[in-house]
Amino acid sequence: MNRQQNSSIVIAALILAKILAKILAVILATVSARACFAEAPPGQVFSVTQYGAVGDGTALDTAAIQQAVDACHAAGGGTVLFPPGIFLSGTVFLKDNVRLFLDTQAVLRGSPRPQDYPAIPRQNALGAPAFKTGFLLYGEGLQRVAIEGRGTIDGQGPAFWLDEMINAHVRKPLPSRPRALVCLVQSNSLLVRDVSLVNSPCYTLWLIGCDDVNIDGIVIRNPHDGPNTDGIDIDCCSRVRIANCLIDGGDDAIAIKSDGGLLGADKPCEDITVTNCVLCSVPACGVRIGYEGDSIIRNCTFSNLTIYDTDIGLDIISILPDVPRIQKGSRCEHIVFNNITMRNVNRALFFWMGNETDNEAQVYLKNVLVSNIVADCRIGCFVGGYADRNVENVTISNLHLTLTGDMPEQARLAGSQIWGGSWNPYAMYCTKVDGLRVESLDVDWTQSQGHWRHTVYCEDVSRAALTGITSRGFCALPGVAQIGLKNSSARIYNCLAETGDAPFLQLTDRSRAFVSGCDLTEAKDPFSADATSSVVEGGR
């Protein structure tokens, strides 16, 4: 090979190297442009600043943001990017195949002006407006929508509340406040991931009639005095996964509902999983299931949760409320709670079936499994139906309660409950239940005071099985038994009587019990039964 040929090869190699360098530079530039948001989907990136958004926290960027969303949708889908900045906005209408991505330093801030949130023209089952006010982000009938990124969506909730208080915990809202920070209706294939949602004026993330939903790693923080500032509301949705979330607010942290009246159709809320979340709701519930709705709620699993500084940890409300559009009431079945810790809660469990109207309710609550719960709480647990309607098939196992309340002398001794507000003087009170199993209930009374009564009290309960009931520092009133039965039938196994001057078991009003395998050596009297009740004792 001659010198001229060598020179040509070198020149060609240099040219090729320059071409490769340019290609690499383009690739690196593309990667750099997308580096702030992982897993960018196929399609273009539409930065809101390209459409005129200022991002200074003062200029209203609603129109520019909407143009970016519309352009993304028209192109067949892609990502609408919020770069670093504070983008003030009113209602933005989401579209199919659009992914909102908020950079770590990006804030989408809701306008404090009510006129920037137009009412959504949708009617409920009675023909009345379903939503009297608007939302910051809204979509209806959509497919493949995502809200992602490490940025923040800020609703400026306090701008829509008065200083006047409704009660000791909650401020009074303005009638014109936005209905929710984010609302999606009858939409499918939804992803909400990593974003922070803060200062919502009302509900934070509200999904109605949606299917195939993934909510992962989001943070919700609302002021504790914010009215109706629920964290996540799942309403008539199917196949929903909520995982790895931190929720701290002024109303229910996670609410599972079934208000088909908003859809004008009966649609179950089903196949829901909630796992690995930390929840706080000072005036309300960590998890609430039911209340407003006519449709069925079923097949819901809640696991690996931490709940703190909350009124009621786990709450099921199967009732016909005094709400005109609700005709039948909520029906709840196949509900599972497992591996949950609670700290500084008022009540760990409250499962209530009832009727707030004079109409015939079509409610039911059945097939509930609760296991592996550790809770520090001021008052005990409640499971109950009403009138001649029974809660059916409830199993509670491995429940460890540390009671810290000072029980007043005037505490409500029996009867159906209203919203869990009554202080019952029992660690566990069950009434109107058919098929109750309580296994491995351990109650620590050493931090409690006042006028407490039974560890477990069953009233109008049939087919009960109580196994492994233990108490430490049982502090009931003199002569009050650890377990009380009134008009109830129960099998009682492997329990340990606490040292004291009271009987282990007290039966009244036609109660029956079979007792076996219990250590009653420390009890002054094993049993106390009135003339209408009876005990059959097996081996100890």
How much is the radius of gyration in Å?
29 Å
- Count, helices: 2
Number of strands: 39
Proper CATH architecture of one domain: 3 Solenoid
CATH topology of one domain: Pectate Lyase C-like
Overall 3D form = elongated
The parts where pLDDT drops under 50 for at least 5 residues are: 19-41
Please report which band the strand proportion falls in: under 5%, 5-15%, 15-25%, 25-35%, 35-45% or over 45%: over 45%
CATH class of one domain: Mainly Beta
Overview of this structure, please?
This protein has a 5-stranded parallel barrel with strand order 26-27-29-31-28. Among the domains are: 174 residues, Single-stranded right-handed beta-helix, Pectin lyase-like (Pectate Lyase C-like, 3 Solenoid), CATH 2.160.20; 129 residues, no CATH class. With 540 residues, the chain is mostly beta strands. About 4% of the residues have low confidence. It contains 2 helices and 39 strands.
